[in-house]
Amino acid sequence: MMGLRVVAVKLIVVVLVLIIMNCFFAFGDCTGGLELGFYKRSCPNAEMVVKMKMNTSMTSDPTTAPAILRLAFHDCQVDGCDGSILLGNSNGLTTETISYKNFGIHKLEVINEIKSSLETMCPETVSCADIIQLAAREAVSLTGGPYMEVLTGRRDTVSTSTKRADYQLPTADISVDKFVKIFKKKNISLEDGVALMGSHSLGISHCRNFEGRLWPLPDPTLSPPFARMLQLICMNPTSSDVAFAQNDATIFSFDNQYFIDILCGRGLLRIDSEIARDPRTQKYVYNFGQDTQKFFDRFSSGFLKLSEYKVLVGEKGEIRRDCRFRNS
Questions:
Q1: Residue 218 has pLDDT above 60, yes or no
Q2: What does the pLDDT read at residue 94?
Q3: CA dist 94 to 74, 80, 85, 163, 193, Å?
């Protein structure tokens, strides 16, 4: 009799193990964690749709790539990568996009258009939080950068706050000390953090974000010719929200030119100049300026870590039907 009980227990254990393994291989992590190809069964063409829509948008407007990459970073900086930056001013919510630290955030409509297409194909399946990170991946890849294997399975938050964005997003004049603290908190190494600054390889910065470095005297870390050029661009204080300068010499290509430029005194923002001179970060800037592949490798590492920061998974949050609004 005892022998039969032992056999029965063993059979139960085997069945449970098989169920768990089947769950893992069929649907991924049963705990609801992030995984590669989370939508391979529920919406198999999801990632291809994101790529095609991003390609179309970037072809018609090259500013899409830097805008989406910045959108992804700013979403993750406020309470994690949860799609909160997309929520509109409704249902009593105060949107993050009106935070003064989110000045210039745009192209949210690209994410909304991707979501609309996916809702037609796979209703209430693909989260807005995932779409942001996948779109950012394409922004980098389609401009010549590395292709990153982004894990998916994020869910969308139901809350957003201008005050939280004001508090948690870094300022335009962030110092190296604060920069180090921000990435350390997210378990991102200093080297990977410096590599993430290479996202400045794409796009522009408005005068309001660096004009304090130009007057009354130019910041001595700026090369004199570069400082004079910026003074000409930003000479009218009433247009500081409109006038802009390129982040580096190749603003539509994801490459290591940013690091080459800041080593030569051509960094727009304070942090750009400081990481090129601070003993803690200078070696990484130099290495990335010399070796594009090393930059790509460390950027990929940092991006993936950031994209997995404080995500909602399992039963937390929701899958929004419209990225602009909570479901209820």
A1: yes
A2: 66
A3: 16, 17, 10, 8, 30
Does 140 belong to an annotated binding site? no
Name the catalytic one among 74, 186, 298, 320: 74
Distances (CA, A) of 307 to 13, 56, 150: 37, 24, 8
Q: What secondary structure does DSSP assign to 66-123, as a single string?
A: HHHHHHHHHHHHTTSSSSGGG--S-TT---GGGSGGGTT---HHHHHHHHHHHHHHST
Cis peptide upstream of residue 224 (ω within 30 degrees of 0):
no
Q: Using CB atoms within 10 Å of the CB of residue 188, give its burial: 0 to 12 exposed, 13 to 18 middle, 19+ buried.
A: buried
- pTM metric for this prediction: 0.89
Tokens, residue 312 = 């909602």
The answer to whether 216 is a known ligand-binding residue is: no
Percentages of the chain per state (helix, strand, coil), in multiples of 5:
55, 5, 40
Tell me: is residue 37 an annotated ligand-binding position.
no
Q: In whole angstroms, what is the distance from residue 235 CA to residue 269 CA?
A: 17
- Tell me whether residue 170 is annotated as binding: yes
Given a contact cutoff of 8 angstroms between Cβ atoms, the answer to whether 102 and 206 are in contact is: no
The 10s digit of each residue's pLDDT in 75-93 is 999 999 999 999 987 665 6
Does an H or E element contain 215, and which? Answer: none
Alpha-carbon span 249 to 245, nearest angstrom: 10
Is there a catalytic annotation at residue 74? yes
